[in-house]
Design a protein that fits this description.
79 residues; alpha+beta; 3 strands
Length: 79
């Protein structure tokens, strides 16, 4: 979200709503970014589909739950 100094004064509820949604708020002064307000707790939450590795195995036929189970299994296959 981008907010001007006027927005901070008259639309603070919207700015706080954006922070509640874990969005960064860029502060503009005369149309130029002067700073950012970052929600407490750090980075914003991203969708898994935005991750660069999402969908890299599109042709994979194995169930994702089985893939994760096999990755978490120990070194031996004695299950």
């Amino acid at each position: 979200m981008e907010a001007s100094i006027i927005d901070l004064r008259y639309r603070m509820r919207e700015v706080l709503g954006a922070l509640e949604r874990r969005e960064r708020v860029k502060i503009l002064y005369h149309g130029k970014v002067k700073g950012e307000i970052v929600p407490v707790g750090g980075e914003t939450r991203k969708k898994s589909s935005d991750h660069p590795l999402f969908g890299m195995l599109k042709n994979e036929t194995e169930d994702p739950a089985d893939i994760v189970f096999n990755m978490r299994r120990g070194r031996r296959n004695d299950i």
